[in-house]
């Protein structure tokens, strides 16, 4: 009589061990690999360029994000007409990886590439992302128009807005080089 209880307990423990031993990346929802996003954006893959986060740049990035940046430099791709930025920002608890293409100081395309949150996945849909098309920053690095939120995904929406503002700011810096 004890054998079924023991085998059930063994099975539950085994399942728990397997679940918690999965790497975090196994829980990521990869919508599009960043390399594919870059390849789709350019007919000939341009060289990777870099913006170094000097004290002045870091200060402005802190204002945009609301926290210190996690890196010392930002990589981007440019063919002279458009720039492409792959950025990461915390939604509620986990990173969201998004790609932005900027042309003439305006967002041409926004795409969620990797989503790691348990909620708010609706930000990956075109109905939400199309709101970013044509947006530019004001002189104080705010989006010129507000973006409609998604019920239950407020923090993910805010993360996308911050990344959009950052992509536009970085685009301005890349043109000033």
Automatic annotation (TrEMBL):
GO-annotated cellular components: membrane
Domain FMN-binding stretches: 91-171
Molecular function (Gene Ontology), one example: FMN binding
Superkingdom as given in the UniProt entry: Bacteria
Name by which UniProt lists this protein: FMN-binding protein
Species of origin: Sulfurirhabdus autotrophica
Lineage: Bacteria, Pseudomonadati, Pseudomonadota, Betaproteobacteria, Nitrosomonadales
